[in-house]
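quick one before i forget lol
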Amino acid sequence: MKKTNPSVAVILVNWKKYNLTSKCIDSINKSIYKNFKIILIDNQYTEKYLIELKNKHKDIIVFKDKSNLGFTGANNIGISYALENDFDYIMLLNNDTEVEANFILPLIERLEENFFLAAVQPLILNYYSKNTIWNAGGKLNKFFGTTQTRLNNKELNPKLVFNDFTDWISGCCILIKSEIVKKTGLLDEKFFAYYEDVDWSLRMKGLGYELGFVKESIVYHHGSSSSKDNNKKEGNLSAKVHYFNIRNHILFLKKHKNLFNLFGIVFFQVLKITSYTIYFLIRFRFNKLSMVFKGIKHSLNNKQYFL
């Protein structure tokens, strides 16, 4: 049964990027669809900047935490609040995005018209190159156990063919039915960040549901603002990203091992880790190399994130 004007909880997680978060909220508030509430979870909050943000955006609901709960832990606070307050839909949206005015309604309409859809994602474009695709859904390679982002860095043009369904949905922006979350459960917090969206997607599909892609809904992504590092000697990308990339990929494969070919995933992981090792040795990036091996170690003993 279709809902009339369903309610949407829009969950944002902030980690020291108040300016981007404020711009994101500004863009959401210009939405044509109005029955939504923004829920902000502020990790390792700074009181001064949080007060400024709340003074500017008085209608948002704010949860603040002194620690960094990661993408998973912080979002789960917002998801739990949305479920407790009976929102019809729950949206996870990265705080380093800005959205088109009509981005919510096409997502709702797609979910409302298809009982077998658990969740949908929009077309995500690069903020600084608005004709370039950042994410148009995801592919899963079951032989090697790898994930790919569809049409990444492809130029947007009328000849592109988009698939209305996807193997997995990006956590950058996902709209999910609240009733599905009650069945699937919250995000798995042991991932902290990275691969948690693929894991959530496969758990939904494991219940017999499909995942959709809606090209009419458009979001612009600034891109990995929380993953950059000022240590130029070690490169622009934080060493922690490599830790989570290695650790969480292996944790993900272990959790869903029945879906993958054992020979294929072992072969790919050996190749991946060897490539990382050689590259970081050549570039003298020993901190990143140590993070790679720490990620391997923690994935094998199921240790929680080290932060």
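fyi The first strand starts at residue 8 and ends at 14.
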